[in-house]
Amino acid sequence: MCLQPVGGASHVGSEDCLYLNVHVPMNASAPLPVLAWIPGGGFTNGASSFNGPDFFVEEGVVVVSLQQRVGALGLLSTGDDVVPGNAGMKDIVMALRWVQQNIAAFGGDPDQVTVGGESAGACSTSHLLISPLAQGLLRGAILHSGEAVSSWGVGADPAVRAFRLGEALGFSTNDSRELLEFLLAQDAADLVTHDDELLSPEEEAQLPLLVWMPVLEPDVEGAFITEWPATALKDGRFRRVPVITGFTSGDGMEAVSRKRYLEDAAALQQLSDSFVAAVSPQLHLPTPQQREDAAVQLRHFYFGHQNITASDAQALVDEHLTRPRAVSSSTFNIFPF
Predict the structure, then answer these.
(1) Are residues 108 and 19 in the same domain?
(2) Is residue 108 part of a domain?
(3) What pLDDT digit, counting tens, does each position of 291-333 carry?
(4) Domain boundary among 224, 246, 268
């Protein structure tokens, strides 16, 4: 697997990691449809071994499980043409080009390639519907618990994280090329084991927030994405292919468990006290005031004016099975597109 943290200063994997697995049904007549699967892991973890080919190969589908660079090695960006970013996303594109060129030798049909993924893998798949680099690489998409237009689909101000990483490793500069030269001289493991030091206290309070995410690149040759996904979708600049999208029955548990709200009373109280600050930056609205107003509505909708308790946190996880506390009716639309 690609180099990634496993808690604290520990890590697993290698820089030598751009491999994929091809699973072929036995005794099936070619050409066969192909599923290319991108693993999840919050853009910080993930490996092709996370997901097996069972069930699909039994139905005569060739399964390609791939992996890409994650964390700083896959998504660091200086916000300019020195390190434009999205290296891991371009790894995915390279893997899909390999599939187009070689899958016929394994009995697969390059004209029947569906790309899918879960969590960050789904977000990556969603970006493929927009990226100019993915032209001709997929005929359908499966998005399981993630999309490019989610609050964690694109990272804002990526250069801030890049320079914070340099500072965490003892190097302070405001020059992109100097930072790149410094980072290239470091042990690769050090680049993926300092994520806890890269978020400000304000960012730590947001719900949810990943350290590394895809970024908008400058308009340079080979850019993966250069505009907000919501803009591309609204303007009709996306691949018109069949899409299956969905989520698990407890998707909210990811954010709840990441913040330890069900077991850390202090963390839950902090959410209760600073709900608007934690939620408003994640909302797709054009101005800070509109985002804050919508966050106030969200808090009132789910919790009324009461303190948020552990039972409320669980209710957010099971939101599709429960009802929010009764509130007066009002217009509520935080996703205008």
Answers:
(1) yes
(2) yes
(3) 999 999 988 888 888 888 877 766 667 554 344 444 433 333 3
(4) 246
**Domain range for residue 87?**
4-154+213-246
Distance between CA atoms of 156 and 34, rounded to whole angstroms?
A: 34
Reported as a single tens digit per residue, the pLDDT across 119-171 is: 999 999 999 999 999 999 999 999 999 999 988 899 988 999 999 999 999 99
Nearest residue to 282 via CA among 272, 271, 295: 295
Sequence-distant (≥ 6) Cβ neighbours of residue 82 within 8 angstroms: 176, 177, 180
If you search the block for the tokens 């989610």, which residue do you land on?
A: 150
Contact 307, 300 (CB under 8 A): no
Query: What mean pLDDT value characterizes the chain?
Result: 88
DSSP 306: S
190 domain residue, yes or no: no
d(CA 71, CA 88): 9
Q: Which of 215, 259, 211, 213 is nearest to 5 (CA)?
A: 211
Residues 27 and 68 in one domain: yes
Written as six digits, the tokens of 32 are 């066969």
Domain count, the chain: 2
Least confidently predicted of 49-58, 68-77, 88-97? 49-58
